[in-house]
Amino acid sequence: MSEGFSITVNGKLVRVAEGTTVAAAVMMANEPCRFSVRGEARGPLCGMGICMECRVTVNGVAHQRSCQLICTPEMAVVTG
User: How many domains is the chain built from?
Assistant: First the structure.
């Protein structure tokens, strides 16, 4: 069984198991995926990439659907 690996979410080191989605890692870091125009914290809603509520920046690439991405070692995720 894999020991897992670490990624960063908004600069926080998060240890994840192999196969963990980025959305799950963001929740493990206790961070919102983004904020609404009213400033409300938003997170994954549909879990299948349709609602776009879980968009984050991954390794410098904006608007990635975190519920559809699997974490990879040393991945850098920025929310907001």
Answer: 1
